[in-house]
Amino acid sequence: MADLLVRTVRGGASLGFLADLDRTAAAAWWRGLAPAVAEGRLAVWAARDAGRVTGTVGIAFVDKPNGRHRAEITKLMVHPDARGQGLARALLSAAEDAAADAGVTLLVLDTETDSPAETLYGTAGWTRAGTIPDYATDPAGGLHATTLFYKRLGERVGERVGERVG
To answer: What sections of 41-143 are H helices per DSSP?
Structure first.
């Protein structure tokens, strides 16, 4: 997973890291997520092909009582060699299904404006909520805008949501 993160960032993807990210730092970042996963605040999936990780996606669950109906899609990434085969859409769909199964009725995410990911979310039924200028730097250090998206999940929209299941 560290190699996937490094390769994706070096390919220009805006994932919160700069181009000088190395494998050691990437592996430490992934290991640092273990407590959140163990506590159920984060779920992470990895796609594998021929023994290597080709993609990931995560769901960050809200732990505040007034926000348990929503979650955030995080770190959807696909290895450059595996792009164009529908893997990003499959990972996104799996995360959406898992979120709905956990009682989530609203998903949110942000992505670099004018990136290929922005097109993916638009064609996958996500609603564009707006953009924020100069939100983050790209891996090379240049400021760029971020587009916010949301998606209401299935027939559960409008129901009262208490504790998340699962």
So the answer is: 87-101, 116-123
Q: Where are the domains of the chain?
A: 2-156
pLDDT in tens, 24-73: 999 999 999 999 999 999 999 999 999 999 999 999 999 999 999 999 99
DSSP string, 22-53: -HHHHHHHHHHTHHHHHTTSEEEEEEEETTEE
Token pair 């404006």 is at which residue?
113
DSSP conformational letter for 122: H
Q: Which of 132, 130, 152 is nearest to 14 (CA)?
A: 132
Residue 69 phi/psi, 5-degree rounding, is -85, -5
CATH code reported for the domain at 2-156: 3.40.630.30
